[in-house]
What does this fold into?
Amino acid sequence: MVKITDVARHAGVSPSTVSYALSGKRPISEETRRRIEESILQLGYHPHAGARALASSKSNVLALVIPLRAGIHVPVVMQFAVSVVTAARQYDHDVLLLTQEEGEAGLRRVADTALVDALIVMDVQLHDPRLPLLRALDRPSVLIGFPQEPEGLTCIDLDFKAAGELCVEHLAGLGHRVIGLVGSPPEVYVRETGFAQRVVQGFTAAAHRNGLASSVHPCEAAPAAARQVAEQLLRERPALTGVVVHNEPILEPLIDAFEGLGLRVPGDLSVTAICPDELAERARVPVTSIAIPAAEVGTGAVELLMKKLGGGAAPEATLLSPRLTVRASTMPRP
It folds into this structure.
């Protein structure tokens, strides 16, 4: 491993001069700075994270808080995590991933140390108990998700209410009059997780606006549960011709269940989903869907945080508009 003394020897200066060049604590000549930078590049020197933190009073580390609670679809969550890590590296920051469900205590534990400079918080609930602490912390934070009252916070997410509405508008435009929403697992609604609640709000509002008969059905993330929900929907609404799915793991099992009950997709039943594009594209019947913009949201969260760390102003609310891609799973009502 290349040390600061190796850089100093190569550049023909003292180790303290290299340290000053890295920290900016004392002025040095442009010629000396240039020699040091060339030596750093040639030798491949990387300052020790602890030394950088002592020199700048910053750790160059962001905390990404993702409590892995029941009902969370981990593959989608990890897409957000990867985008945050990738974006953070563009700003020379590392990411500390916190997955335990510790609530306010976990945030305080991290904030009371010098481990991180700022926080990105996911799985936001409408009445999230972590919000008072986030508002009071001396470290900036960004929420991926919106609570019921986001005032005084910086939040970014897909506009899930608009996404629910857009799915319904698409089905209504195709002539469907009886529709259902197969949603997230029940525990997600019990926690009042923001994104799931807002899909229901958008779905219900658009169905009412278009005069559609509709119902909402939470569903466990298992094929057997998908079969039960399909049976329940057809029992309660025999004229059902359109379904919106907001539950990634059961998308294909649900289509299989409906076809096992005698409904062809899309001949008898049109299906739309809110899910990652790759999941919709590779389904046996490619599904008309609204994408989860994990890369855009994760990158946006880091950029908002960097503005705040730099002392700049960041908008309190950033809502990304949903984009619907029409595929083979929807067609006009027969």
About this structure: The two ends are 70 Å apart (CA to CA). The CA atoms of residues 190 and 334 lie 37 Å apart. The chain has 14 helices and twelve strands.
